Amino acid sequence: xxxxxxxxxxxxxxxxxxxxxxxxxxxxxxxxxxxxxxxxxxxxxxxxxxxxxxxxxxxxxxxxxxxxxxxxxxxxxxxxxxxxxxxxxxxxxxxxxxxxxxxxxxxxxxxxxxxxxxxxxxxxxxxxxxxxxxxxxxxxxxxxxxxxxxxxxxxxxxxxxxxxxxxxxxxxxxxxxxxxxxxxxxxxxxxxxxxxxxxxxxxxxxxxxxxxxxxxxxxxxxxxxxxxxxxxxxxxxxxxxxxxxxxxxxxxxx
Length: 254
Known about the structure:
Blueprint (H helix, E strand, L loop, with lengths): L1 E5 L20 E2 L2 E2 H11 L4 E6 L12 E4 L8 H6 L2 H4 L4 E5 L2 E3 L1 H9 L4 E6 L2 H8 L8 E5 L5 E7 L9 E8 L1 H12 L3 H6 L2 H10 L5 E5 L3 E3 L3 H13 L4 H7 L2
Parallel strand pairs: 1-4, 1-6, 4-5, 8-12
Antiparallel strand pairs: 2-3, 6-11, 7-13, 8-11, 9-10
């Protein structure tokens, strides 16, 4: 299995923290988000890793890390960054990761072992984390609904009711070559302008509307997201005070 980290954008919501470096190089608990991810992937047995670059691409060079460059990173969204590696995605199962998250090796392993051509990791313990990030969790939470078999029914809508949030998409998904064929075929049916603006959850909603089956795997914890300087401060406090994130301290001492 391969892994790909989508890190082409600057992450403008991080303010001056990304003035001179990409968002994935933001440090949390003494280590860049990118390096936390590479460590988790390696610990879960994934050696073949790549990163999609754009903003300050030269800073993302790592020994043994393959890179794909999105020359239109300022004009396009995450889905088009993913498409820069189309040939690579056609050859083997691939775990896709957003660049602004941190996750454990156990989270990676759960996604690796899940069945399906398109599989999303869902954080079922999301509410506690959102309470640490936001005064009103529903101001940021999005819909996430599955059927009893774990197949995705709804994702990415703004909600006003906690009943519509069975978990939160973690920015981690597995795509098999057959799954990429379905995505690629759908993208070819869209105009270039629409493709350029397409974010990942919008893509997933469109695939659902076309009847494409998307599976999910539930994970309770083992994941953090950094969207803003306020998030960075809040997540550092979470790491310092929540026992379930002790693995971050242990890993950082290796």
